[in-house]
Specification:
413 residues; mainly beta; Archaeosine Trna-guanine Transglycosylase, Chain: A, domain 4
């Protein structure tokens, strides 16, 4: 006798839902497989044949994957094992005329240089240092490290990290602040040494720090996330030499932190939701008000990742898994789409002489051997002339973090 077939199909390893092969009763334990990936869930709803079931808890506003592609956005929180259908899912495929126009007119930059020999698993957080002509960036996962690249000479340096590293920002004393899985640390470039000083989430062991940038007053804004979760476990923090404050909860994948040229608007993307939000930003008291959707990119492939602002006040956003960069005007309208020779751009930053080069970090993680062969630049830094200059990054204001070290029992030794 042949063994019974599966109750549900898992169509891609990264999918958030499986498809019921037959009608399934509530309380049924379902095991769905795709290659070596196995998902196990107990149904909380009856699932009609051919319909979707949630393989894990899903946050409201999350774009969910089926076939490895985004098929819609949740309209409310969904339990693991629940029925996923029109009552809790809306399409995200509708494109505005502006988006259709921009996507139709997308072009590839004429001159793209691939920099460096090292291939990152997940390159991120590019920072230009105009004093020594170096680009600093990180490899976030699998082979975590801080990298430095002398763009003129091609010389490279690499400092392996003991854990995932989400971001780096420059300090006014020429060191770096790093956001890692276990919190914030300083990194002394001369000694190649980390010095941990504060963990903002000592009770959230699945979380790590992600994207981070400094505002004009030298405060570091940094998001946290759980990369293995589909519920909104991340937060946005602001770090100063004597304090670290949680500003806003409810993030899935906080990314793309940037400010308008006048500093009055702060941008933060949520990659898994496919949205870039804008806040009214008060630089005096580091407060955020008037949250609004700056750009809803759910109809695009991939999601908005790292970002920067050019001298015209336009926002550049790297579209992870979308193979492109977007340039958005101050109203959020897409001005330009630049297609790239990689599918996973992760972040971007201006640098080079007069900040006229746009550096783009990229990822190779998750690409098959055939895809890697087709994308030889994946995991490397790209350098582009996009016809506009950027601005210098703001640095963390000093390194007097003794207040955090001494009065917080959760500070790392």
């Amino acid at each position: 006798m042949n063994p019974p077939g599966p109750d549900a199909w898992l169509l891609a390893p990264t999918d958030d839902v499986a498809t019921a092969v037959r009608a399934l009763a509530a309380g049924t334990r379902v095991e769905a497989r795709c290659g070596d990936v196995v998902r196990d869930v107990v149904l909380v709803d009856a699932i009609p044949a051919g319909h979707k079931l949630a393989l894990r808890a899903l946050a409201p506003g999350l774009r969910i994957r089926k076939y490895g592609e985004y098929i819609g956005r949740t309209t409310r929180a969904i339990e693991a094992g629940a029925w996923v259908h029109e009552h809790n899912l809306e399409t995200s495929a509708r494109r505005s005329p502006d988006l259709e126009r921009a996507w139709r007119d997308a072009a590839s930059p004429r001159d793209i240089r691939t920099l460096g020999r090292a291939r990152c698993a997940l390159g991120e957080s590019p920072v230009w240092d105009e004093h020594d002509g170096r680009l600093y960036f990180v490899d976030l996962r699998d082979t975590p490290a801080i990298h430095a690249l002398d763009v003129a000479s091609g010389d490279e340096a690499r400092w392996p990290m003991p854990e995932d590293i989400g971001c780096i920002v420059p300090c006014t004393d020429r060191t770096l602040i790093a956001g890692l899985r276990s919190g914030f640390a300083t990194f002394d470039l001369a000694r190649g040494a980390l010095d941990y000083f504060f963990d903002p989430e000592p009770d959230k062991h699945g979380n790590r720090l992600n994207d981070g940038k400094c505002d004009a007053r030298g405060r570091l804004w940094c998001g946290s996330m759980n990369p293995d979760s589909a519920i909104a476990e991340g937060s946005l923090y602001v770090l100063e030499p004597q304090s670290c404050r949680r500003v806003l909860d409810g993030w899935l994948t906080p990314n793309g932190i940037a400010w308008s040229l006048d500093g009055a608007t702060m941008y933060v993307a949520d990659t898994r939701r496919g949205v870039i939000d804008a806040f009214a930003f008060d630089c005096d008291d580091a407060s955020l008000r008037g949250r609004r959707v700056f750009a809803d990119l759910a109809a695009l492939p991939g999601g908005p990742d790292g970002a920067c602002v050019d001298r015209d006040g336009f926002l550049w956003s790297a579209i992870f898994d979308g193979g492109c960069l977007l340039r958005l005007d101050p109203s959020g309208r897409i001005d330009r789409v630049l297609r790239l020779p990689v599918s996973k751009p992760t972040s971007c930053a201006f640098g080079g002489p007069d900040y006229r080069t746009l550096f783009v970090t990229t990822a190779s993680r998750g690409l098959s051997a055939s895809r890697l062969a087709a994308e030889p630049a994946a995991g490397h830094v790209l350098a582009l002339d996009v016809g506009v200059a950027g601005v210098a990054p703001d640095a963390f204001a000093g390194m007097s973090c003794d207040g955090l070290r001494s009065d917080k029992p959760e500070a790392a030794a």
